[in-house]
């Protein structure tokens, strides 16, 4: 099976919430020597993006998205475990979480996993994280990146609060801030002073790696 076909099969396994198929694709990719980080980003994550788009269009319901997320989580954990056995130099440190008042963490978890497999030390703060905690943990872990996800229009203002508290703590110029979530836009990121808006996990990785290169 070609690499492109493996990516397509990986995406389909997520769309179909088929964990057995997801693991079969992973095993075949390993056998063929395919880069697992690439498989995660261009295969499995592509499936999650497609489901996210379908959910946004009202074509599927939340339970279907949650089932697929569980499969995504399982396969990501397996890839992470395999990557940990490889001596990858640490490129930076990131703290990431879903803002206060927001209980959804579907997208945030995928971003954390994909960033981690690209050599970034990730501290996932979980969901409903107060803005103050983002800043406290950024200081504690000497973070290079602070990522926040907001899935509701009513919680987006927490991302603005994070920016303000980073300035107040005197570390705003020491970190790169990334914002994301369903209602979040590039315009919102610019308005609150965030460094980058990321539509999905793959874009978050690209933004971070590009920043490190510069």
> Given this structure, which CATH class of the largest domain is correct?
Alpha Beta
Radius of gyration over C-alpha positions, nearest whole angstrom: 17 Å
Give, in spatial order, the strands making up the sheet with the most strands. Answer: 2-1-3-4-5
Largest sheet: 5 strands, parallel
Strand content: 5-15%
Report the span from N to C terminus.
Answer: 37 Å
Weakly predicted, low-confidence segments: none
| Helix content range | 55-70%
Annotation field: number of helices? 9
**What's the oligomerization state?**
single chain
Extended strand count:
5
Order of helices and strands: HHHHEHEHEHEHEH
Globular, elongated, flat, extended or rod-shaped: what is the shape? Answer: globular
CATH architecture of the largest domain: 3-Layer(aba) Sandwich
For the record, the count of structural domains works out to 2
Mean pLDDT: 92
